[in-house]
Amino acid sequence: MFSIQAIGMKQFAVGLLGVVVLMGGSADLALGAVELNDRQISNAVDDELIKDPAVSARAIDVSTAEGVVTLTGSVNNLLAKERAENIAATVKGVRAVVNRIDVSAPYRADKEIDEDIDDALRWDPVTESWELTASVDNGIVTLTGTVDSWQEAQLAATVAKGVRGVKGVANNIMVDYKTDRPNREIQEEVAATLRWDLYVDDGLIEVSVDNGHVALTGTVGSLAEKNRAYSKAWVAGVKSVDNSGLNVKGWARDARLRTGKYIARSDAEIKAAVNDALVYDPRVVSYKIDVESTGGYVTLRGTVDNLRAKRAAAQDARNVVGVWSINNKLKVRPGTPSDRRIEVNLKNALARDPSVERYQIDVSVVDGEVYLAGAVDSTFEKAVADNVAARQLGVEVVHNFLTVNNPNFTVQDPYTDEWYLYDYDWYVTTDRTTTKSDWEIEVDIKAELFWSPFVDSEEVTVSVDNAVVTLTGTVDTWAERQAATENAIEGGAVAVDNELAVIYGPNYYTP
Predict the structure, then answer these.
(1) What is the mean pLDDT of the chain?
(2) Which parts of 197-306 fold into alpha helices (H)?
(3) Are 296 and 325 in contact (CB under 8 A)?
(4) Which end of the chain is more exposed for a tag (fewer CB within 10 A), N or C?
């Protein structure tokens, strides 16, 4: 997540012993109990944006006042603006983000945008049956209609935001729950949802409900967790969620935040939690999916009609506490679209997507299997094209033969990415090269670990030999262990030997 340019030969220290931040030739060393200052936070956010291939970081300015980050500048699409905000939220010490980035989208007539949104909603396998209306005024989209859940309304908005030329979306879609639920029932379900979510440390979160209005109070470790808690609180029957009472700690990891979360779970409990997670994902809720758990190893069976649904179900299960591995046996059974219809739909979808529309991507479809060829600039864009193909109705498999002009070894970030990179058979983290010295790699990795909201950097020891990194120590969760590997990759490792033991993980990694 965080990379630095090493200047001089100072000893790097993090955690309670201090933190080094080297940016643009300057060095900050804070010893003792560290309270991050605004300049350090701004530097860290700026570095995160610079490394992200989906954000034009050179056109974005970052300022911080008392942990509140303000983003200004411009990007060429709405999704990039929101991505910049989500990236900033993952940086340790950020309490809030004020997003003043302007969307300078290429000019398109409102009628063209409107037609593309209608087409996108009509052919998306989730939104195709919803009665939704979009209107466009100077690039600003207003969505109206009625759906069954808050999650469905958000997904419809995401579809609209992914159309080239859209500058903003006013989501006026109404949610009709059909029946009311008692406050107590809602409160218990929200609390359980937070408790089972892998990326929310809920030990100090209190949930209260008044007439369907949810209030979250207490303490979380990062702004990204605060935002995720907000979205997870929208269970059936919720009319509004207020997370303003959640305070973000200056340190991203604290044992009190995880009290009672990572304990032994029975397979019956894990199965029930996975089923609950699937209920609130509009990409998969309409399918009958059988869940089986054996010692935290989850198997999914059933049929879906598009590849995105298969991937989404696995991701939902993967984000449940106590799940160590997924065996995704879901079968994709193509629906009614012919291969020709899928090909036309996919070409149109790629042409309206602001991240990849400028590339010449060749598409062919045979028996529901998509073949992509051509070239893009980044691994992120290759993943975007793959994801666009996967969400087309009737797509069973994606064979992604796109070449990447500038490989950047993009890693998985659950707070910013819709997809799970390791689901893609083309994604590799091997054959990397580096121009950094071992010392520079070690410094960069320690900084990555320090700024990460996922990893307690004090628990991880880093050693580097000829750009091969070894990680030792003990971490709390399987997700933390994986995040440490990704931090090492971002720091410049050409290979990672992760020997971290996991307290709450599979038996063969438990100390």
Answers:
(1) 88
(2) 223-232, 267-279
(3) yes
(4) C
For the stretch 18-63, pLDDT in tens is 444 433 333 333 333 456 799 999 999 998 898 888 888 789 999 9
Q: Which domain holds residue 449?
A: 429-511
d(CA 356, CA 344): 16
Q: Is residue 50 part of a domain?
A: no
Query: What pTM value is reported for the model?
Result: 0.89
Are 249 and 276 in a shared domain?
no
**CB of 49 closer than 8 Å to CB of 28:** no
Evaluate whether residue 103 is within a structural domain.
Answer: no
**Residue bearing tokens 């020709």:** 340
Tokens 């879901």, residue?
330
| Burial environment of residue 142 by CB neighbours within 10 A (0 to 12, 13 to 18, 19 or more) | middle
Write down which residue in 389, 423, 457 finishes a domain. 423
For residues 433 and 488, state if they share a domain. yes
Distance CA 207, CA 234 (A): 12
Least confident span in 10-19, 250-259, 466-475: 10-19
Virtual torsion, Cα 15, 16, 21, 26, nearest 10 deg? -170
Q: 510 to each of 473, 477, 496, 500, how far by Cα in Å?
A: 11, 10, 19, 9
Residue that is last in its domain, among 280, 308, 332: 332
Number of domains composing the chain: 5
> Nearest-5° angle of CA 407, CA 410, CA 413?
170
91: in domain: no
As given in the structure block, the two tokens for residue 154 are 């958000």
Domain at 170, CATH number:
3.30.1340.30
Whole-angstrom Cα distance, residue 389 to residue 328? 19
